[in-house]
Amino acid sequence: MKNLYRKPKTGLLILFCFLAGSFHSELYSQEQIIWDNVPVNTTGITAAYSGGTLNVMATGTGLNMVFYSIPTNPTVFQTTGAWNNAPSKDLTFTFPEKVIITRFRVYDINYGTWNDSFSFSNITFGGVTASAGCCATTSGVTVSAGTPPNTDVHWTCSNAIDSFTINYANTNGTTHAYLFYTMEILRLPSIGTLCYNSTPPTLPTTLGNNIQGSWSPATIDTSVAGTTQYVFTPNGGQTIQCPIAIDVTVLPPGQQNCCVPDITLTSPTDDVASGNQDNRETSNTITAQNTINSGAVGVYHAKRTITLKKGFYSANGSRFRGYIQGCTGTFVGRESPTAETTDLKKLITDTPVTEKLLLYPNPATQKATIEYQQPIRNIRVTSIDGKTMLSKELDANSYEIDLANYKNGMYIVTVQTGDGRTITSKLFKK
Containing domain of residue 392, as a range? Predict the structure, then answer.
């Protein structure tokens, strides 16, 4: 078996220096990868860039290759392959984030007692340019006896990737020999997984090294759960013209640690059209001032308060349910087994406005006072399970509720007023 780690002859060393110099002048518009200066080894090479550390390692089965850094030109690294002792291990590039490779260059591709053919896996390039007479496609390169010596190939505009592999060919017992690599990347906007109905980040109109453009869709929509692709198209006349796509994932309602604290619904933005169901849930409050149209459904959960303000309207033929509970991801209108709970459901959901009704202190321990600007005709206090705790007729602007026999928890206070209104509010006993 031939020596796998043959050192270059003098002539090849001269070529090595020439090639390194030729790479040095070839800088493009995006972030150039600068390779670390490491000892000659058979494991791999690293590069620190603005997003972290890029690792390049020999992977898979086959014989090792030798890695060389080039201190005089750190934009380039070299591998010496298994030559005429195929098969060779593969070469895997791993990033700590998804990036676009705007340009990937491999030089000194040729054919002799070796074969520098290879293919890519886990990456798709949008374009390729090569020396005249060469044999490259966006999927790799296939050399032959007619391939020009020292062929230079540039692959451009990859899809978003965090890892890809070069698979070196095994052709009649030969594989790659001396190859040189350089890379330029564009980092993508850092957008993590988003919560349903959360406030989305703004998509930047400038990427990388001042590449300006626009997005389609223009803004992130978190009202629809699932994964949506957003595509950045650079403006004309810039060094990058390929579209750049990212995937944004919105979690379904009720996901753990994905419950927004407060929601305010207004009309017409948050009106619910006929045939649609509007599901909302929060860890604190929902304030609704929207319209649920005939044939539509609204199911709202809030852990502490649902406030239906003036302007909220659930039209005839619609269905609306409001529940005091946290985020569960379950939006099914509950059937009420008794008249008591049916009344309670109506009391919770049909309140038009509460801002002129005073209920204090709240939470309360022994007594709570309720006041209104008009005479109060009736007060009713109901537990959350539908039990009537108090029902009293009166003709006064205020009333003190004795809570001595009430268990700790939440109660619904319903007031019928002298101006013909029915108002509900929540009272907490502690």
Answer: 358-429
